[in-house]
Amino acid sequence: MEEGFEIEAQALAQVLDELDYFQILKVGQAGSPNDIKAAYYRESRAYHPDRFYQMSNVELKEAIGKIYKRINEAYVCLRDDTKRMKYLADILSPDRQKKLRFIEASEQEMKKEKEQEVGATPQGRKFFMAGLSDLAAQRFASAERNFKMALTYEPNNPNFKAKRDEAAKLVKSDMSIR
Amino acid sequence: MAEPGDIAIGIDLGTSYSCVSLFEAGQPVVIPNEWGERTHASVVSFLEDGTVLVGNSAKRNIITNADNTVYSAKRLIGRFYFSDEVKKAQAVMPYKIIEGENNSVRIQIRDNVFSLPEISALVLKEMKAIVENYLGHEVKKAVVTVPAYFNDNQRQATKDAGRIAGLDVLRILNEPTAAALAYGFGKDITQKIAVYDLGGGTFDISILEIGKDVFEVLSTAGDTYLGGDDFDDRIMTWLAESFLKAHGIDLRLNKYCLQMLKEASERAKIDVGRDGMAKISVEGICQDPTGKVMDLNAKLSEVEFNKMVMDLVQRTFKVCDEALQGARMTAQDLDAVILVGGPTRLPIIRTSVRHYFGKDVMAGIDPDEVVAMGAAIQASSLLDSKSEHYLLDVTPLTLRVGTVGGYTDKIIDKNTPIPIERSKSYTTNRDGQEKVKIRVYQGESNKASECELLGEFEFSGFRIGYRGEVRIEVTFEIDPNGIVNVTAADVETGQKTSCTIRLSSGLTEEMIKTAQDKNAKTTLARGEAAA
Question: Where does A5-112 sit in CATH, by number?
Answer without folding.
Answer: 1.10.287.110
